[in-house]
């Protein structure tokens, strides 16, 4: 009987142990925290599944390298030091570091760890705290920005409380009102406010207290310590407690005393302005920016535009300006904001003649009405002469740029490959004497690559120079573009395969086109070659063809490195050099896309480039179809 009991107890304990292990394993796998066992050589011994979820690496990838390979570089030294202390027996609590995820994002973790009894490994658990860290950073930045704004010397600022009075006053308010901070704290708002502004401020203040509004803004006068009036624009806002009652107020005051003084002087000068406006011989207009109505005009304007003065003053600028209504309205708004005050337009005279004019305009206030005061200068003849000069200068620059580009390519791009050929040939000779077959093969390959680059450059230079001098004949014929495109794709299957790039085509059964076979073939080969060159290994290139009424569209799209707008704009300029190595350091000539553009132009087609840095490029050829 006793033997049976002992056997039963042993079985029960074994079952409990298995259940406990199973439960621990279940928690290990289901936990949203990171669990790991790390050997003393820095490699993971065991990981729970959450590592894959949080960092994006597979367990195999994580266990193939020491944990330091996944740390943020700035945290490696500190983490290693902490880990070594842990292996010595120190327990780790609340240690924080960063890991770099597979998608290059950064995540923060807070760690706890303990060494194994034999000190040959360590057990650790971590919780992600990225959101907390970001929130702390944001809070610090927000407080810093608030402090910077609060302490602006040209703005008076204060924080007050209904219970505690003045909590904080900045130097700007001290300078504005002439009191020290201690003196201000012994004053009330009523003591400082001009008596004529007390009532309107009191009304708005009570609306805040009642919960109707949280902030308000008004022009308000304060009394300086020396007795002078200080005009301000005061903006006040409250922060409420949980129960909705006001906790404290923040008030910002901008000194506008000089502006008010200026406004008074402007009113005095309005009559003088009108006298000058009428008598001056230049073309002048007063325009209402709300609807573009000509509010007033002088005799010189009536004579210039050819309308009677009373009719001109009833017209709108859209009847004179050749721009559409929305454009005119937008530019008037710019003038009102004082963000722009000089424009060049085309104005229509009463005779129907279009004249080019330069308009200098600025906002003015007359009789409490905001208007635009514009002076109009006729620049038609001057612009004709300038355009002629600019066209000549442009052509001269293009000629100089082409010459510079040509000599630059010969001096630089030909020199480097030839130097490589000469250098590698010399080394090859030595290796032949040593009978080192591996090195012989390697240097022979390098010589071959350099030779191919020189050949490609010479061919592109030849075609470019023929195009520029009119010696490249345009010989169109009827082609099946599907067949031509498939041939081109076949030429690049090996180079695409070398980079594990997938070439996908979506083509119709047949696509007839009347075109120069050699030119179009050159364009397509250049575009496919470029797509392979600037696509990372394992990428994808799509080649599509669509027939639309009267045109054929051919697109080569990749998911490679892409380009920014500046690069796209400079690609087709002969005076800029945008040749850059491919993703495996493949070399280009800098002329390929320029040739493509010129060949497409000869076919009266369009060459469209769409690209975004880091997201790939799309090159589209639009050709007139048969």
Question: How would you describe this protein?
Answer:
The chain has 626 residues and is an alpha+beta fold. Helices cover 46% and strands 27% of the residues. Strand 1 and strand 2 (44-47) form a beta hairpin. Helix 16 (437-469) packs parallel to helix 21.
Low-confidence stretches: none
The share of residues in helices is 40-55%
Termini, distance in Å?
103 Å
Structural class: alpha+beta
Oligomer: single chain
Please report the number of helical segments.
21
Write out key terms for the chains shown:
alpha+beta, single chain, five-stranded antiparallel sheet, 22 strands, 21 helices, 626 residues, 46% helix
Outline of this structure?
This protein has 626 residues and is of the alpha+beta class. Helix content is 46%, strand content 27%.
Give the topology.
Elements lengths: L1 H29 L3 E6 L4 E4 L2 H6 L3 H5 L12 H12 L4 E9 L5 E10 L5 E8 L1 H21 L4 E7 L3 E5 L1 H7 L3 H5 L3 H4 L5 H12 L5 E9 L5 E12 L5 E10 L1 H23 L3 E5 L6 E4 L1 H7 L3 H4 L12 H12 L5 E7 L5 E13 L2 E10 L1 H34 L1 H20 L2 H33 L6 E5 H11 L1 H6 L3 E5 L5 E5 H17 L6 E9 L2 E8 L6 H7 L20 H11 L3 E7 L3 E9 L2
Parallel strand pairs: 17-19
Antiparallel strand pairs: 1-2, 1-5, 3-4, 4-5, 6-7, 6-10, 8-9, 9-10, 11-12, 11-15, 13-14, 14-15, 16-18, 19-20, 20-22, 21-22
Helix pairs in contact: 15-16, 16-21, 17-19, 19-21
């Amino acid at each position: 009987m006793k033997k049976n009991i002992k056997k039963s107890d042993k079985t029960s304990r074994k079952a409990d142990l298995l259940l406990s292990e199973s439960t621990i394993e279940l928690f290990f796998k289901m936990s949203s925290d990171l669990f790991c066992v790390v050997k003393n050589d820095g490699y993971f011994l065991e990981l729970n599944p959450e590592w894959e979820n949080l960092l994006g690496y597979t367990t195999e990838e994580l266990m193939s390298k020491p944990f330091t390979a996944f740390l943020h570089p700035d945290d490696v030294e500190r983490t290693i030091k902490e880990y070594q202390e842990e292996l010595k027996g120190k327990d780790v609590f609340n240690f924080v570091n960063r890991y770099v995820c597979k998608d290059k994002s950064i995540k923060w973790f807070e760690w706890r760890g303990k060494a194994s009894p034999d000190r040959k490994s360590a057990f650790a658990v971590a919780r992600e705290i990225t959101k907390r860290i970001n929130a702390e950073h944001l809070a610090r930045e927000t407080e810093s920005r608030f402090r910077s704004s609060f302490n602006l010397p040209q703005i008076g600022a204060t924080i007050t409380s209904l219970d505690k009075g003045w909590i904080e006053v900045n130097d700007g308010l001290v300078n504005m009102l002439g009191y020290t901070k201690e003196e201000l704290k012994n004053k009330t708002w009523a003591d400082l406010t001009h008596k004529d502004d007390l009532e309107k401020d009191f009304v708005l203040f009570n609306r805040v207290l009642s919960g109707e509004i949280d902030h308000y803004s008004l022009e308000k006068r304060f009394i300086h310590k020396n007795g002078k009036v200080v005009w301000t624009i005061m903006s006040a806002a409250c922060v409420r407690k949980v129960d909705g009652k006001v906790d404290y107020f923040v008030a910002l005051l901008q000194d506008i005393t000089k502006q008010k003084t200026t406004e008074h002087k402007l009113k005095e000068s309005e009559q003088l302005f009108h006298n000058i406006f009428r008598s001056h011989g230049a073309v002048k207009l007063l325009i209402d920016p709300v609807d573009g109505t000509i509010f007033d005009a002088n005799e010189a304007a009536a004579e210039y535009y050819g309308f009677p003065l009373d009719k001109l003053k009833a017209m709108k600028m859209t009847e004179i300006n050749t721009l559409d209504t929305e454009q005119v309205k937008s530019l008037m708004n710019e003038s009102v904001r004082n963000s722009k005050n000089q424009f060049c337009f085309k104005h229509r005279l009463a005779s129907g003649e279009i004249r080019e004019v330069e308009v200098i305009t600025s906002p003015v206030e007359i009789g409490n009405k905001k208007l635009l005061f514009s002076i109009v200068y006729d620049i038609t003849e001057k612009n004709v002469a300038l355009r002629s000069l600019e066209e000549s200068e442009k052509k001269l620059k293009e000629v100089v740029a082409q010459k510079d580009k040509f000599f630059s390519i010969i001096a630089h791009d030909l020199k480097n490959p030839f130097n490589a050929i000469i250098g590698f040939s010399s080394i090859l000779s030595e290796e032949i004497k040593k009978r080192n077959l591996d090195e012989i093969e390697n240097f022979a390959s390098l010589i071959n690559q350099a030779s191919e680059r020189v050949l490609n450059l010479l061919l592109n230079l030849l075609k470019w120079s023929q195009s520029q001098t009119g010696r490249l004949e345009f010989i169109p014929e009827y082609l099946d573009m599907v067949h031509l495109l498939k041939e081109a794709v076949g030429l690049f299957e090996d180079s695409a395969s070398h980079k594990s790039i997938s070439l996908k085509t979506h083509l119709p059964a047949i696509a007839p086109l009347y075109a120069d076979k050699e030119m179009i073939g050159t364009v397509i080969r250049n575009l496919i070659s470029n797509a392979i060159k600037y696509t990372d290994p394992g990428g994808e290139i799509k080649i599509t063809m669509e027939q639309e009424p009267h045109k054929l569209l051919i697109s080569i799209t990749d998911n490679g490195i892409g380009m920014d707008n500046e690069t796209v704009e400079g690609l087709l300029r002969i005076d800029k050099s945008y040749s850059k190595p491919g993703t495996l350091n493949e070399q280009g000539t800098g002329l390929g896309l320029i040739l493509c553009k010129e060949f497409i132009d000869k076919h009266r087609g369009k060459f469209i480039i769409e690209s975004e840095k880091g997201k790939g490029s799309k090159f589209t050829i639009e050709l007139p179809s048969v």
